[in-house]
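Z., the sequence and structure:
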Amino acid sequence: MNPQRGTIFLEDAAVLAHSAFDGDQHVLRLAAARCAGSARPGSFVHLRCDQTVPMRRPLSLMRVNAAEGWIELLYKVTGPGTRALSAQPTGAVLSVLGPIGNGFMPHRDRPRVLALGGGVGIPPMIFLAEHLRARNDAAWSTLVMMGSEIPFPFRTRPSRLFAPGMPDEAIACMPLLDEWGVPSRLASRRGFPGCYDGLVTELAGVWLASLDQAPLGQTEIFACGPAAMLAAAARLARAYGIPCQVAMEEYMACAVGGCAGCTVQVQTADGPAMKRVCVDGPVFDAAAVFPAA
């Protein structure tokens, strides 16, 4: 039996807020109470961008408030669908299918969480950080690192939180995470003030190299972003002997497993197998998707 059966909902969701940021990026808040009540970090929704656009778009969940019944999505305009979505005003009603997919599974014996988000892979890291902040079943300690080659979809500023092992120049943060008490650091090759000059996985490598064996034994990596970034995260995890979970991003038509248009090859105990990102994922063990060469 599909473990997700009965937990994916179709809702008409009103636009509560819609904010634009540099780089044609947008944050959309929707009233979607049933989705909000079942969502987990790493899951996503399949959204109808406009009545004139028949194909839905898969978008990762960035924030969820089950008590107030809303979800938040971050997206970048990349084509006619998301362009139509960017024009939706407050009060407009959009069809939302979700939450979809198997999310991240933090392990209590590894409470030091390194969350890596690249570009539009940033949203699941924010959701994960907020989720762990609310949990009291372990001594969770989350460090979020984000990378982008366009301006970040928030106003950056120097962090007020100390993050041991960070290069001196890496001081910029996401203010919302700072307010939550969750340290974050930013990386870019575009020379943005306060950002580490390089890829987010390179910054992660600097931090991991600063850890002794004991803290490494409590660390787990969670990552979402382009395939090359996820492969680099898998190599880091392998080099330091720590587990890593990756949220894959693929184009998809139905998002509920019927079309099999979003398959990726995964190594299993029985050999290579094709898995659907939408319902078998989007979160996979990094070592299964990016095995050692």
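The CA atoms of residues 122 and 185 lie 12 Å apart. The two ends are 34 Å apart (CA to CA).

Let me know what you think.
H.
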